[in-house]
Amino acid sequence: MLENGHGDLEYIVVDAGSKDGSRDLIQKYYHHINTIIFEPDAGPSDGLNKGFAKAHGDIYGFLNSDDYLLPDALERVADFFADHPSIDVMSGHAIIVDASGRLIRHYYSDHFSLKACAYGQCFLMQPSTFVRATAFNGSCKFNPYNHSNWDAELWVELALRGAQFAICNSVLSAYRVYPESITGSAKFDDRIVANCRRMFGQITGREWRWYDNPLKAAWRVRRLVRNPRNICQRILGGSVRNAGERSTTSSVRWGFRSSRWI
Predict the structure, then answer these.
(1) What whole-number distance in Å separates Cα of residue 115 and Cα of residue 128?
(2) 68 with 253: CB under 8 angstroms?
């Protein structure tokens, strides 16, 4: 992160009380960090709101857990926003890695669509997604009560307020999956489904009905047809969930396991 290659960068670290040695590492690099927030919060989304409240930049991005940005990613992000002044949210692509950093597969963000998102068939790679400060600050920000898929809810909130989305066709980050992560485990599945149903209501103005199940299947086919690279990657590397189950425990960790980088 510190060697990403972009000079005009503000680092904000939020840590609610990790017990894995993250704070010692944060203190080690405190000369490079603009703002450090060591205080309890109500969960990741609440911590992110606290971090963004301290930000002064024009473009916001965040890293959860031990995901990381690839070299020159921020240069690409800055250039994209400079070249596309009407875009509020930009998503690139990512590589999926396991706990030890082994490459599993690539994952390509979808072109954003509220209708596809209503049926859970629009995925933006969160560590490769960046938002203009004006768009974020004009929204309701992260929902502090959403503890599973708070990033997706922000995308919906921004889109409902008229934000313009675009894809940057570059691989910008590494998304780490292992058995204990939200993506790699099933422990948050019920919460994710409940939040998705709530977001469905926000987008469509109605509750989920029986005929939405075949519609969801149709939207899934549409997503696979429109983004065929993910089909090839799934064939070659398997599903992201299975990658997490196959991942083995390792002492190698990138970033801060219990911290959020803004």
Answers:
(1) 22
(2) no
Asked whether 38 and 235 are in contact (CB, 8 A), the reply is no
| Best CA proximity match to 176, nearest among 98, 261, 247 | 98
Is the alpha carbon torsion for 133, 74, 129, 245 positive or negative? negative
pLDDT tens-digit map of 204-259: 999 999 999 999 999 999 999 999 999 899 888 777 655 545 443 332 222 222 33
Contact (CB, 8 A) for 172 and 106:
no
Measured from the Cβ of residue 53, the count of other Cβ atoms closer than 10 Å reads 13
Query: Judging by DSSP bridges, how do beta strands 12-15 and 35-38 pair with one another?
Result: parallel
pLDDT tens-digit map of 243-253: 545 443 332 22
The pair of three-digit structure tokens given for residue 238, joined into one six-digit string: 């398997």
Contact between 59 and 257 (Cβ < 8 Å): no
> 169 by DSSP, 3-state: which?
strand
pLDDT digits (tens, 9 = 90+) for 38-86: 999 999 999 999 999 999 999 999 998 689 999 999 999 999 999 999 9
Cα 35 to Cα 224: distance, rounded to the nearest angstrom = 41
Put the strands of the sheet holding 259-261 in their side by side order.
35-38, 12-15, 259-261
Alpha-carbon radius of gyration of the chain: 18
Tokens of 112: 């954003």
Measure Cα distances from 230 to 67, 107, 113 in Å: 20, 6, 17
3-state secondary structure labels for all residues of 88-103: CEEEEEEEEECCCCCE
